[in-house]
Amino acid sequence: MAKTQTNVTELDPVWRQITREAEEAVQEEPLMGGLVHACVLHHRSIERALSYRFAAKLSSNEMSMVILREIADEAYAAAPEISEAARADLMAIYERDPACHRLLQPILYFKGFQAVQAYRIGHWLWQQGRTDLAYFIQMRTSEIFGIDIHPAATIGKGIMIDHAHSIVIGETAVVGDNVSMLHSVTLGGTGKEEEDRHPKIGDGVLIGAGAKVLGNIKVGHCSRVAAGSVVLQEVPPCTTVAGVPAKVVGEAGCDQPSVSMVQELPESDQG
């Protein structure tokens, strides 16, 4: 007797929700049918959909979509943690960004999500010693999305990069889990030294728009960096820093700043 084939979509609630939203999107706007089918409904898993989106966005005359998709498929097959991180990133955006109403949106439209997924494939290539391919992915990600993340940087899961324009994350930077940052954030060095020279961002940190964190310094867990700040010294856990140069201005105000996304400074520091 023939075995019953299990539908992968039925076993993956996140993918099931995405495909349901995709079907609704086509019904509501038939002109989106080609894009939605190509990016979502033609695929049997979120990994296949992300692989397609990665290849479609980053392909050029220099590197075909076919080759890029083979690279992505290889990465997802060899490293399940990449797709696990993608799911966590997707849920982070859905839960934290008031402009995100469907899980479908980041896959189709949000360059912060798409750029981080491209970084994850480039990081896997870097770990495999395939540095030239990793650099190529970094270059194309920067060209297409306006986000420059070195493939050697270490980034956790549950990452939300809102708006995402002009993000720079350096080679030896480390970003923990459940971090949120807004546009124009720089995690950079302070000179030409070639050793460990970039920031270490703890779990649950919120980094406001335009903030610069420079040098091999730690930003403690569940802390907040106010918009426009320039951070040159270590940030204690569960605090808020602001200013140029940044100084501690109070407590973080909640247990999970990156989830609450509250960016107001403590009242005592507002003038």
UniProtKB/TrEMBL annotation:
Gene3D superfamilies: Hexapeptide repeat proteins (2.160.10.10), serine acetyltransferase, domain 1 (1.10.3130.10)
EC number, as in UniProt: 2.3.1.30
InterPro entries to which the protein is assigned, alphabetical: Hexapep (IPR001451), Hexapep_transf_CS (IPR018357), LbH_SAT (IPR045304), Ser_AcTrfase_N (IPR010493), Ser_AcTrfase_N_sf (IPR042122), Ser_O-AcTrfase (IPR005881), Serine_acetyltransferase (IPR053376), Trimer_LpxA-like_sf (IPR011004)
A Pfam family annotated for this UniProt entry: SATase_N
Catalytic activity: L-serine + acetyl-CoA = O-acetyl-L-serine + CoA
Pathway field: Amino-acid biosynthesis; L-cysteine biosynthesis; L-cysteine from L-serine: step 1/2
Cross-referenced SUPFAM superfamilies: Trimeric LpxA-like enzymes
Signal peptide region: none
Keywords: Acyltransferase, Amino-acid biosynthesis, Repeat, Transferase
Any Gene Ontology CC annotation: cytoplasm
GO biological process, alphabetically ordered: cysteine biosynthetic process from serine
UniProt protein name: Serine acetyltransferase
Species this chain originates from: Shimia marina
Gene this chain is encoded by: cysE_2
